[in-house]
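Review session, final week

We close the course with one last complete record, chosen because it touches almost every idea we covered. It is ATP synthase regulation protein NCA2-domain-containing protein, a protein from Talaromyces proteolyticus with 653 residues. Go through it on your own first, then we will talk.
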Amino acid sequence: MSIVERIVSRLDVNIDKVQLQLIDEDAEQARRGSSEKAYANIPDPNTSIQTINRLKALVQSLSADSKGLLNHRKLLGVLTQTQRSHKDIFYDKAVADDASVYQVVWVFAGKAAAQTLGVILNILLKHLSTIDDEIDYWDGILTSNFYTGYYTLQTAPSRAWSRAYEVYVGLRNTHLLDTRQSSRTVTQVWSQFYQLVQRNVQENFAQNATNAVKSPFARCRTQIREKRKSLKLLKDLNASAIGILLEESFALGNGDQLSDKSTVNISEWRNSVHRSTILMESVLQHLKNSDASLKEFEGNVSNNIAAQFQNEQHITTKNNTLQPLNIIERLVSILQVRIQDNATSTNVLVRQHGRPSPIVRYWIPASSALLSLSTLLRIITSRKAELLTWISEFGATLIDFWGNWVLKPIEDLIGTIRHDEQSEIAIMSRNSLKADQESLERMVVDFVSDHLPSSERSGPDVEMITAQVREGDLTAVLKAYERDLRKPFVGTIRGDLIRALLIQIQKTKVDVEVAVGGIDALLKSQELVFGFVGLTPGILVSYATLRGIGSFLGNRKGFRAGTEKQRIRRAIRNVNRILSEASSTPKGILSYRDYGLFISEAYVMSQSSQYTLPRSVLGDFKQDLADLMDVGKGVKSQMNVVGRIQWMYSRWI
C-alpha cells in the first residue's frame, strides 16, 4: 500500500464511522417513534429502500477497502456514469427528500471527495518527482566546468537562432516604422532616429557592458541558475499545495481531524466535505500562477476558500439535496478540467525551465555519428570477412563451452550416480597390479629355487615364499644380493647380481602400483564430489552471464538499483533535515511547504524501497515508514524512527 493509498484508506475508514453514526441515529429516531420528520414529504418506504440499496452499491464502488485507490480516469468514469444513470436520485426532489437517502448521498459525496484527494496527491507527488529530476540535472551541470562547457556548446545554435530572430524582429519593426513615416521629411526622420538610438544606448548600456565582459560560459551558468531558481519555486508551490491539502482537507470547524473524534457533528462533517472540495479546486487553480511567491500562494488559497465557502453557504437554498449535488459536480469539474489544466501548466513550466529538448542534448553526438557513418561503413565493408569470422568463432566458442563445460560434465555426473563403468575415475588399468604381483612372486620363487643349498633338494616352500612376497618380505633375495655385492664381478658374471637388481626393480614397481591403487580407490570413493567440481565452473559462468543479462534487460536491479539507493539515501537525509529544522522552532510544527516536502520524500522512500530492499524486510520498512508519517507522535518520535531506518536498513541502502 502506497502512502497516498494509506491516506485515502484512513479517510475512508473515518467516513465509514460517520456512516455508522448516521445509521445509529436513524435507528434511535425510529425506536423513539418520533413523528417529527426532517422533511415535509415522506416518500414510499419501498422506493426509499431501493434507492438506498442503489446508493450503497455506488458507495461500495468508491470504497478504498474494496476497490483501493481509483486512478484519475476510472474515478471520473464512475462519477460521470453515476450522474447519467442515477438522475432520479440526484435530481428528483421527491426521492431525495428522504433523510436516509440524503445521508447516503452525503456519504457517497464524501468518499468521492476522498478518492479525488488521492488522485490530486498522486499527481502533485509525481510533479514533485519530475521537478526534482530537473533540479538534479541542473545541479549536475553546475558542479562540473566540463558539463557546463558542453551545455554551452549544445545550446550555441539555439542561442544564435534566438539572437538572429531578435535582430529580424527589430529590422521588421524598423521597416514598418519607415513605411508609416515615409511621408515625413528627412530632417524629422533623422531627428527621431537619433532620439531612439540615444535612448536605447542609455537604457541598455549597463546590460550590454556586462554581457560584453561575460563569456558565453558565464552567461550560461547564470541562465542555469535562473532556471534552477524557477524550478525550486515551482517545487515549493507544489509542496505547499500538498501540505495544505493534507492539513486542511476533511478538517472540522475547530480544526480537528475526523480521526481525532469518536463522534462527529454531522453538520460539521458535511461542511468539512464541502470545504475540502473547494480547497482542492482552489489549490489547483492557484498553482497555475507560477509568478506568485509561496506566501502569496498560501494566502490566496486561504482567502479564496473562505470567500467561496461563505458565499455558497449563503446561496444554498432550503433544498438540502443541492449541496451534495454541487459537490459531486464540482468534483467532476476538478477531474475533467482543473487537473488537466494543472498538468498542462506544470509541463509547460518544466519544459521552459527544465533540461533542453533531446534534439539540443544529442545533436552533437548525432552529428558526429552521421559524419563518421561513411567511414564506419567503409571499415565494415572492407573487413566484412573478418567480422563474419569473428562472429562465427564467437558463436562456436559459446556452443563448445556449453557442450564441453556444461552438458558433458552433467552427463558424467549422471553416469557417476548410476555407477556407469565408463564414467568411473581411474589412473591405472584394472589388472596391472595383479599381473605385476604374480610376476614378482614367480621371479622370487625361481631365484630362491636356483640358490637352494644342496641339502635342501626337495624344493622350496612356494606357498610360504609367495606369502612373504605379498607382505613385501624379500629376505632371501636381499641376502643373495648382499653376498654378491662382496664379489660384484663374480656376481655379475654369474648373473645373480643382475637378477637381484631386476627383482628389486619389479618390487619397486609393485609398491608404486599399490600406492597408486590406494589413490585410485580414494578417487573412486569421491567420484561424485569430483563430478560436481567439474560441473561447477560452467554452471557458475552460465548463471552469472544469464543473471547479468536479465538484470540489464529487466531494469529492476543493476543500474537502477544503484540509482534508487542513492535516491533513498538522499530522501532519508532530507527527512532528517526537515524534522531537525522543525524541532528547532518554538512550536515544533511543520509549515505547509515543509510538510509537503516531508510527504514527498516519504513517497520517494516508498517507491525506491521496491528496488533496493529484499521482500523479507520490505514489510518492516513500510511499517517504519507509516510510523514516520504519523505526525501526531511528535517530531522527536519521528526523529527516532529516522534513526531506526538508518541503522536497520543500512545494509541495503
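Two points worth writing down before the exam:
The chain is about 80% helix and 0% strand.
The chain has a mean pLDDT of 79.
Good luck, everyone.
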